[in-house]
Design brief:
Chains A, B: Its cofactor is FAD. 2 copies of one chain form a homodimer. Chain A has 476 residues and is of the alpha+beta class. The first copy, chain A, is 36% helix and 21% strand. The first copy, chain A, folds into 3 domains: 121 residues, Uridine Diphospho-n-acetylenolpyruvylglucosamine Reductase, domain 3 (2-Layer Sandwich), CATH 3.30.465; 111 residues, Alpha-Beta Plaits (2-Layer Sandwich); 127 residues, Alpha-Beta Plaits (2-Layer Sandwich).
């Protein structure tokens, strides 16, 4: 272990914002993934200058630095595989400016997604990238992973909303990237590169974000499909219909069963459910879009079609989808819901085939997997239900993950849609980006010559996630 | 001059695709800017392998390579300031795939923008980034500059439509970047960085682009403003109204006079004209958007309000804007219309002030300048009307350009909205990106250690455009 001088860090942020307490190190060593490791020290900076001082010190001493927001990452991005400093950014949680006439806001990275939207709401606008974890996910973490969420089909991902960034580089210097305007063509757009770089290129200390008007009308519809393939064709047909849904979600039979089992919603146990939403300022336009999608569903064998503009009714329709995660967790006492092949993106026409393939691969490997996702943006998610205390189940899961990403590459999909690479997807990432890894390694060196920023991730990652870190679940 | 072995290049692309003819070198040494220089040889590759071979040779011999599309760049991006090879990409002009169900197409870089849209149209979709030069601009050139155009306010810029790229790097190796899906979070998004890098990081040989449905309804409106400030307030109010226009254009009094003088359109000689368009699948929604914008214009003193859904009527309303360039060129026999402070982006609330400032700065420096632009995306353009055979007018223009960009920085605008940096904006670029230049230089080295890709541009550019190159206009 390299030497770390805790008093120097205390001097920068104050004693109360440092911890080496084993309980803290344990918590800060885990996120929402299966992975776990320990930082040597947790540091909670309060402003940009402190971040600069910490980075200058870490760079001089070549100490690893892992930047962390809400800790809701699903694949181990903030797990400090080489120890070092974990930089908890949650104290830097100020909304610095909401500029309605110029359609941007400036925020610190520790602002929680939902809090930003609460603050924007009186201006009649919202910040569209909204992961399911928006109650705890921070803007900084969302930038690190290029988070997107259910409305990405219409409003894009985090990268589309980031106009500019202030970033502390590995050596402690501060750079201002991007602009405040809708378009920019002023040389290298480094701020866009920072989005999705998983803390390996710099520490974001301020973000300039765009926002969009809150639509006056939102209508949510649902359709059941006896055959997964038919839901898949419906997805492709909707995306080719000229309609831009504000949401298009697929829920598979495993998820439906889990929800029914734990919540008693009485959902029909079909192969697939599609949820589709349209939004806008004019009801006639939303009507047209909902009707078009409903028609497509009907033409592809969709049944039990329902839709509503009413907020309460919409919440009821969405309840099953919303409660998917807890339902999967409670599915069985013996089985845990784990994120491993947690997300991927595939072309629309391959959505149903991908879900089917996931089920087949799971069955072949003696585990249970669910497939669901934001299909309108090509995004597919899974959860693995497995017995975490059985070594053979981990081996099965490992095989299944490898097979799934091999399939994804074969249909020209990509390893991550919105959860990032972290630890669990490193091997698939390397296989997919095989021909540009050398370039990315050179880029990383240009930003961080001492490799102190989140080392052991992306190009630098161990390809075997089982041996890369401890696992949060005890193996007997 | 470094040694160049023309027979080696002939061997790669064939004799008919090489030229060292002085007339060709002159033409290929100029673009739509005031700048000029000579390449040593023009090479027209026909496929990716040839590009790889050319780059491998150039890299070995450290010969500069400038990639060129339609030659419609406005600030000298493709002017080969250090000589070398000009790589004319126009032979690589195949549309490789139009995949309607999966909402992407794959094209070679030499495809002309209008040709792509002609090919997409039978599928009911269009590729939104459309610069005024779309009849000659190539997709590769648009990627190099992050081009956008009149509809960027609603549909974004080139970067927003680029899902993936194949790129030949400086050493001749080929990398596949990005994906084919609406969202992606698979490590560094290098394809987005390539967009706007002005040929300094690699040679694009294939692009995967997204497209959007052609709206069923388009309505274009116009309003006249006696006071520029009022048009400015109308722009900001429209952008804050919840409406997303598909076009929002400002035309200033200088431009109106030029159009009237050369075309006899009888436009009212007010201080500003706003053109606003809405589009969509449902007429009620388009009505609502047009009415909202019209109401905003009226409330801000707009007069002569008119609007139409009819294609012919719309063309008539747009005619003055469309013919702006030729009108400015023919404004006076003694004056040429030149692009120097050709574009910039500023916050919406500063639009009118910027236009006014441009007029003031021009008057102070004894030249005439027009201000117009795609205000809905914060984009402002100018043309300088000046006597190009007078040294003092060049000196005046130089001063005016410096003053304009100093003003742009003071209101937190950015040096380029969509035309890029090239030669004429290099000094402003360096001043704006002062704190990240070192980082960008390191990034460039990571991509191109021998600095052969478009050397002498961006961070590497001479800050004085008058001395950086020959000028296309003869100074007496």
């Amino acid at each position: 272990m390299k030497k770390i001088d805790v008093p120097i860090l205390k001097n920068i942020v104050g004693e109360e914002n440092i911890s080496t307490d084993p309980a803290d190190l344990f918590i800060y060593g885990s996120d929402s993934s299966v992975h776990s490791a320990r930082p040597w020290v947790v540091v909670r900076p309060g402003d940009t200058q402190q971040v600069q001082q910490i980075m200058a010190y870490a760079n001089q001493e070549k100490i690893p630095v892992v930047t962390r927001g809400g800790g809701s990452g699903m694949c181990g991005q903030t797990v400090p595989v080489q120890g070092g400093i974990t930089l908890d950014m949650k104290r830097m949680n100020k909304i610095l400016e909401i500029n309605a006439p110029d359609v941007f806001c400036r925020v610190q990275p520790g602002v929680v997604d939902d809090d930003l939207n609460k603050a924007l709401s009186p201006f009649g606008v919202f910040y569209p990238p909204t992961p399911a974890s928006s109650r705890i996910a921070t803007i900084g973490g969302e930038i690190g992973n290029n988070a997107s969420g259910v409305r990405s089909v219409k409003y894009g991902a985090t990268r589309d909303s980031v106009l500019g960034l202030k970033v502390v580089l590995a050596d402690g210097s501060l750079v201002t990237l991007g602009a405040r305007t809708r378009v920019e063509a002023t040389g290298y757009q480094v701020h866009k590169l920072m989005v999705g770089s998983e803390g390996t290129l710099g520490v974001v200390v301020e973000a300039t974000l765009s926002f969009v008007p809150i639509p006056k009308f939102r209508c949510l519809g649902m359709a059941n499909f006896d055959r997964l393939e038919d839901a898949g064709t419906a997805i492709a047909d909707i995306m080719a219909s000229g309609v831009v849904p504000s949401m298009l979600e697929l829920v598979d039979s495993v998820a439906i069963k889990a929800v029914n089992k734990t919540m008693d919603l009485g959902l029909p146990e079909v192969e697939a459910v599609l949820l589709y939403e349209a939004d806008g300022m004019v009801k006639e336009a939303v009507d047209y879009e909902i009707n078009t999608m409903q028609e497509v569903c009907k033409n592809n064998g969709g049944t039990g079609l329902t839709s509503s503009y009413d907020a309460k009714e919409r919440a009821k329709i969405f309840l099953g989808r919303k409660k998917l995660f807890p339902a999967l967790s409670k599915f069985s006492d013996a089985l845990s819901s784990t994120s491993l092949a947690d997300d991927m993106a595939v072309p629309y026409s391959k959505m149903a085939e991908t879900a089917k393939m996931i089920h087949e691969i799971a069955a072949r490997n003696n585990i249970i997997m669910t497939a669901y996702g934001h299909c309108g943006s090509g995004c597919m998610h899974t959860k693995i239900l497995m017995a975490p205390n059985r070594q053979d189940q981990w081996e099965s899961a490992k095989r299944a993950v490898a097979e799934i990403y091999e399939y994804v590459r074969s249909v020209k999909g990509t390893t991550s849609a919105e959860h990032g690479i972290g630890i669990s997807k490193a091997s698939a990432f390397k296989a997919e980006k095989n021909d540009s890894l050398k370039l990315m390694i050179n880029m990383k060196k240009a930003f961080d010559p001492n490799n102190i920023l989140n080392p052991g991730k992306l190009m630098d990652a161990h390809e075997d996630w089982v041996t890369a870190t401890d696992l949060r679940y005890t193996v007997a």
